[in-house]
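During data preparation, we tokenized the protein backbone, and the record follows.
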Amino acid sequence: MGFRLLILTTGLRGERGGVYLEDEWVRRLEDSVPGIEIDVADTIQEAASLIPKADAAYGFVPPGVFDLGTNLRWVACPQAGPPAGYYHQAMIDSAVVVTNTREIYNDHISAHVMSFVLAFARGLHVYIPRQLRGEWRPGYDTTYLPESTAVIVGVGGIGGETARICSQLGMTVIGVDPRLADLPEWVTALHRPDALDGVLPKGDFVIVTVPETPETQGLFTAARFKLMKSTAFFINIGRGATVDLDDLDSALRSGEVAGAALDVFEVEPLPAGHPLWTAPNFLMTPHVAADGPYLDDRRIGLLVENCRRFNEGRPLKNVVDKAMWF
């Protein structure tokens, strides 16, 4: 038993500005996986020279490097939903299995979503600006959650956990997902993405958790904001490429939606002077929804488990549909 793993620390950026790698990861992998040999590449040139020997790789493997990996059988993506470019055509067309890190963020990101839901339901998006202006002015029509509906676009790990919490607060949950075959316990109705336009008018909260894929790029533009209730709140914690920011700003200013909250943006950081900075009823956080303890432990734990499985010829966890990017 034994195989050669190449860890690439260069290429596409991660949520924290680079590929996740701690010194103790190599030691833990070597202690946990019999016969594993590990190479670390800090540059594209190093990756190109090392990948011909690799059976597996962790990180971003660009096309020119990927083509040199003639022994490559598995690539581990360090993110749940990497930016466009990770799943390039050479990778998609190959027999190489790709896995990702879905599930490790569920509790942190769903808590972040619910902080937005509760803020809107109780009017914090109205009261905080009044506080900053020094105004003591009660008055906001609260949203009674047991009589509200959440439309969750993307009912994977994060969306599923968000659905559970929404349901426990008494909310009706409608899910939109391309892959789920069975109705999740916490979801009242489940639809395919081609039914999205018919589902949007039902939502008091529209919560988007989908990754960036060819199908989700530009998913929410002016036409879809017009389909939403004027009393509805829009929340996106998936990927910024799914929402047209200028169209969202227009929807907020025209009153087509009652409010919106984003943790991810088409362009990050949000440029100074962008109209969304001053848009009414808008809440934002700077791509921090995944923040929380234990993520590094979960990430290396998943990598160790999959390395063991790969070494023993067993099925890997979190296998990706490469053509769909998730």
In short: Residues 147 and 261 are 21 Å apart (CA to CA). Residues 13-18 have pLDDT under 50 and may be disordered.
